[in-house]
Structures are given as structure tokens and as C-alpha cells.
Amino acid sequence: MKKSVAVIGAGLAGLRCALLLKEAGIDVHVYEREHHVGGRMKTEKVDGFLLDYGFHVMQTAYPTSQRTFDFEKLGAQAFEPGAIIVQKKKKKAKFWRMADPFRRPIQGALSGMNRFASPLDLLRVARLRFAVTKGKTDQVFEGGNKDALSYLKQQGFSQSIIQRFFHPLFSGIFLEDDLRTNERMFRFVFRMMSKGNMVLPRGGIVAAPNQLAQRLGEDRIHLNSDVSIIDDITLDINGQTKSFDAIVRAFNANQINEKRHVWTLHFDAEHSPLKSRHVLLNGDVKINDGLIAHLAVPSDVQPEYAPVGRSLVTITVVGGRADSLGLTEAPEIEEAVRKEAKVWFPNTSLNWRLLAIQHIEHALPEVGSERPLLATPQVQDFECGDHMLHGSVEGALLSAEAVANAVVVHLQV
């Protein structure tokens, strides 16, 4: 007789764990309280636009993602490697392009001549890239355990490039305003960005969990489920008691305590404000009390994100930055964002139509330097999710695999 397992939570970790258990010959069922799969990886359709819940990208270099997702079937399309940086200069906007010289040699050479960064800082970027990309991925989790800001200073980077480039880029990734994230996490993300592409799937970010759900089978996924845990093998599901051989908790019971929050604003624009498929970083966000961390145009990468003849502009505001400026309500966030964008795009941004303001209050788990960050998750009570390792798709998937393996071993005893 087949062993039975209940997975509580149909986020990325829950779906991946359930799929592995199914492949191991276990009768697995997933119970989700929401009406959709994917957890934070969800997409809403508004006026013909695809609005992801926060600005999401998938990273093709993540080792676990490579064996989990079929990027070709997802129709994944990539942003250009590198970034565009904008700063206000004499009441006008000045733009610099920081291209990846290893993958875009000509553009990279031109970037080295635009005087955005000093030759020494450019050499330090190249040295950092070499250091984090050599060897196995697990090696970036060895060595120091400081915060990312201290690590960048230790590597000799100038205050200028830290504030104008690293801060807007990584504050928008880590969703914190101080670069307090563990340096090991910084090295890991920088390695992945150096080796792979940031991509968007066709149909919105929800296409990723949907792909896992399709493989698992709809008959094994139970949405709108009110679940209470009675003990290690018993659940109350919508008022009915049911027993299993094991129960997996694929959710963060302490999510309310996670303080990294983010505001995401989606706008309908007649034309894309950017001339290339880069992400735009705000070089003023830390230096001159800016608000926006970065701006992207998902429809430049995946045209399906916007109706024909329109563009989707997505702006990320790190919650901690907004808090530091005393901005806590959606109308004042929108007003400040529009004021900032007007300096960059004075002829077009005034006509952008707001589609949605999303405030994601508990967006990522805390990954600071207060504890060593490990390369592999620790399995505790069959609980999985990015909070068990680090806040990323890779963290969620690695945790799911570890718990699935632990459950299989447990059921074979």
C-alpha cells in the first residue's frame, strides 16, 4: 500500500517537494488556503496587462532551477546583462550604461569609457566576478560572514560605486536599505548574475509554479483549503479529520515577523521609456534621498505583459527606504514616485496611468550576518521554504528537495 503525505502550502517549495514525493511513488496531496498556486509568485491580469506580485525575474544560473524548470517551455526571455544607471545632474537626468564586458564586449568597452566608474572600480568588479564564479557554487558560502556593505568596502570599492551602483541594484534584490544582507548571499547572487540571465516566462511569473502544478496534477492540489495541524500525522481539513504517514509544512509560520517589505507600482505607458532591455537603477536613491530603487519594462522583454501598442512600466520601492522618508501610504508613495520619474522622463511619465500599487509587507525572510549562512538547508520537522535557507527561488527549491529526501528516508524506515 502506498504511503501518503500531505503538503501544506502550494508555493514553490510545496509544489517542488510534492512533485519529488510523487516521483518517489508516494501518494501526495497539497493543501493550499488561497485560490491559486505559487504563493508570492503570482500574476494578475488588469486591463490586458500582466502584473506580477512584485517585480520578479527568474535566474537561469540557479543550479536547482535548471533541474526544476523547463525554461524553453516557459518561453523565457532575458533582460540584457548589465544595467542603466540614472542620476539627476543640474535638474536634468543623466544616464549611463553599465554593460557586462564578458558577454557584451563592445558595449562593455564603451561602458568603461563613459566615466560612470573609475578604472580601479571597474577592475575591482572584474576581480570580484572572477572570484565568485570560479569553483563550485557552495564555495561562495565559505569565508567571511559579514554584511554585504562591509564586504564591498573590504574589497576596496569606492563609496561612489557602492552608493550609485551596488546599493540600488542589491537593495532592490534583497529588499533592504542598508546592504545588511549576509555577504555570502551577496556573493551567491553576484555569481548567479554573472553566469546566467534574468528572464521572464511567457504568461507572467505565475507560469513557473503553474509548470510544477501541471506536472503534479490538478487532482493532487486542493485550493481554498482551511487546514489545521492536529499532530505529526493528522490534519483537520475543512472540518474533516484526515491522517497521513507524514505531513510537510511548506509555509513560514513566522512570516509576520519578517520585516523586509516592498512597494511595487505598475504603470500603463504609451511607449517604453527605455531604449534597451536593461533594468534602470536609481543612482540617487542613497546619495540624494531618492525613493525608487529600480525601474523595469517587462513588456520590452515579454511583449505579452502589455496589450499591443502599450508598455508596462514597473517600479520598485524598497519598504525600508520609504519608511526612512516618512512615506507609508500608497497615495504619497505614488506622488513621490511620479515626481522622481518626471525628472528622468519629463516628456512621457506625466501620461503614465497607474494600474496598481502593491504593498508586499512580508516579502523576504531576514538574511543578515547574525548567523552563518549555509550552502545547504537544515531539515527541521519536515518544514520547507526559502525561510529555511535564504530568500530566493533557489533557497525555496533547495529546501524542498532536502525535505522531500528526508521524508522518503523516513517512510522507508
- Let me know the average pLDDT: 94
* Beta-strand content bin: 15-25%
Low-confidence stretches: none
Per the CATH scheme, the topology name of the largest domain is Polyamine Oxidase, Chain A, domain 2
Number of DSSP helices?
12
Task: Give the % helix.
Answer: 25-40%
> What's the CATH class of the largest domain, please?
Alpha Beta
Terminal Cα span: 15 Å
Instruction: Please tell me what the overall shape is.
Output: globular
| Sheet with most strands | 7 strands, mixed
CATH architecture name of the largest domain: Alpha-Beta Complex
Structural class by helix and strand composition:
alpha+beta
Give the domain tally: 2
* Radius of gyration over C-alpha positions, nearest whole angstrom: 22 Å
- Number of beta strands: 19
Strand order across the largest sheet: 8-7-16-17-18-15-19
Question: How would you characterize this protein structure?
Answer:
- With 413 residues, this protein is an alpha+beta fold.
- The chain folds into 2 domains: 4-42 and 206-256 and 374-412, FAD/NAD(P)-binding domain (3-Layer(bba) Sandwich), CATH 3.50.50.60; 77-200 and 259-364, Alpha-Beta Complex (Polyamine Oxidase, Chain A, domain 2).
- Helix content is 32%, strand content 23%.
- The chain is built from 12 helices and 19 strands.
- The chain has helices spanning 12-23, 63-68, 105-111, 119-133, 148-154, 159-174, 183-195, 207-216, 298-301, 319-324, 330-344, 393-412, and strands spanning 4-8, 27-31, 43-46, 49-52, 58-59, 77-78, 82-89, 92-99, 198-200, 221-222, 227-231, 234-237, 240-243, 246-249, 260-269, 280-282, 294-296, 311-318, 353-364.
- The strands form 5 sheets. It has a 7-stranded mixed beta sheet, sandwiched between helices.
- A hairpin with a 2-residue loop joins strand 11 and strand 12.
- Helix 1 runs parallel beside helix 8 and helix 1 packs parallel to helix 12.
- The radius of gyration is 22 Å and the shape is globular.
- It starts with a strand and ends with a helix.
- The model has no long low-confidence stretch (mean pLDDT 94).
